[in-house]
Amino acid sequence: MAPSLIPRARLPLGHLLAFGWMPSALRVWVYRTFLGYRIGRRVSIAPGAAIVGERVQIGDGVEIGLLAVVQGRDITIGAHSRVGTMSYVSCERIEIGEDAWIAEQVYVGGPQLPESLFRLGSRTIVLQQANINPTKPVIIGDDTGIGGHCLIFTHGAWLNVLDGYPAQYEPVTIGRSVWLPWRVFVMPGTTIGDGSVIGANSLVQGTIPPTSLAVGTPAKVIRQAPAWPRVPTPEERAALVRTMLEEFDRFAVYKGVAISEPARPAAMTTGADDPVRIRVYARAARRFRLLLARDATGALEAVRACVEAGDTVLTEAALDPETRDRLRAVGADWLDLGGRTRSTGGSALTEKLALFIRRYGIRLPRS
Known about the structure:
The chain is of the alpha/beta class and 367 residues long. The protein has helices at residues 13-19, 24-34, 234-254, 299-306, 321-330, 348-357; strands spanning 38-39, 44-45, 50-58, 63-64, 69-77, 82-83, 88-90, 93-96, 101-102, 107-108, 117-120, 125-126, 131-133, 138-140, 145-146, 151-153, 155-156, 168-169, 172-174, 179-180, 185-186, 191-192, 197-198, 203-204, 207-208, 212-215, 220-224, 258-260, 276-283, 286-293, 312-315, 333-336, 341-342.
């Protein structure tokens, strides 16, 4: 067979043979030194994984799982993002935001064009065995979830167009804070607006307006803003926060963490209506303090007075600049539910709690 005019390497076998066996720290050094990749701190690349590109930029704390492949001409992966075990991501341009997660056995690939683009926003998730075809650009906004077994295609062609059959090549755009549960099929040329939810097992084609609930084959809008979603009252929000913390505590105790409530500092009030509650989480010799600031008068003042280095502050009310400056000054971390931000870094408690509340759809941008 004659050699191909345009080589097509689905698996970078030469790259894997040369580098795939290396321990993570050595591989990162080789990538930086000999391939010119720009790689941040605390990056982990598992055995058998490969990152193959001409221009590659990897942020701090990125994890590439066992036997995962990421290959393209231009690759950017934001800080704290993960590509799971045996996932395959191949596209001319790959742009992944911060705190994004591509789970295990996800396939991103297909026929390539110069404009082929896979852009995955920050704090997104693509669950197991999803299949995404970015022949034309696939753009997925921040805080969006793609469920397992979802199919997103930008091209549909098989039978001969000269016999009258269609061949469709169009981009797909999925907005911010969109949720596609399992087994949703997104057709070429589809646009899904910000804040929309698609029912499981639906087929989506065309345009879905923002803040809509659409179900069926083809998917049709059955609810829209302002009737959907219903925004909870302040009392309901406070009850939801209590429920989340109770579930987190139950999970932590189950995993061997001891939880206690220490004596209250003099700067704080006492009684059931305290604006700030304190818990200590301890495992082995490690202890972490959590300050829960309610959406109540005096809460932020109490936090500023009592916060210590290493604390995690979980606040229902939005943090003001003065309180954020105080937290930074003493070396504390925060999860700001009201303002929807979090500190850039975080202790083991901060990171575990931030991960836990994602179960309730709460994803906080790093400040």
